[in-house]
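Need a sequence for this fold. Nothing fancy.
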C-alpha cells in the first residue's frame, strides 16, 4: 500500500509539473485552456480536502507541512490523517464504553 501511495504521489508531482509547464512554457497557445481547466478542478478538490483536514485540526493537530502536502497530493496525503483519526475514534469508543460500564455498576 505504501508503494502504491508513493507511486501516486509521484504521478501527482508529474501532473503539477505538466500543468505549470503548460502555463509558463513556450507553447501555451497550442495547449489551450485544457491544462488550466484540469489544474483548477484538481486544485479545488485539494482545497476541499484541506478544509476537511481543518475541521479535524483540534483532534489531529496538523502542521503547515501537512496542509501543503494535502494541497499538492490530495487524498494521497490524507491517507495518514484518516488512519490517525480512525485510531483516535476507536480509542474514544473504548474509553466511552469503559465509562459506561463503570456507571452501570
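Here you go.
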Amino acid at each position: 500500500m505504501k508503494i502504491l501511495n508513493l507511486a501516486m504521489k509521484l504521478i501527482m508531482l508529474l501532473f503539477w509539473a505538466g500543468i505549470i509547464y503548460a502555463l509558463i512554457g513556450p507553447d501555451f497557445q497550442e495547449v489551450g485552456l485544457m491544462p488550466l481547466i484540469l489544474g483548477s478542478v484538481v486544485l479545488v478538490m485539494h482545497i476541499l480536502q484541506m478544509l476537511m483536514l481543518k475541521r479535524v485540526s483540534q483532534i489531529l493537530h496538523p502542521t503547515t507541512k501537512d496542509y501543503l502536502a494535502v494541497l499538492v497530493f490530495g487524498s494521497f496525503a490524507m491517507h495518514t490523517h484518516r488512519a490517525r483519526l480512525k485510531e483516535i475514534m476507536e480509542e474514544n469508543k473504548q474509553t466511552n464504553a469503559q465509562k459506561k460500564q463503570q456507571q452501570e455498576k
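For context: The chain has a mean pLDDT of 89.
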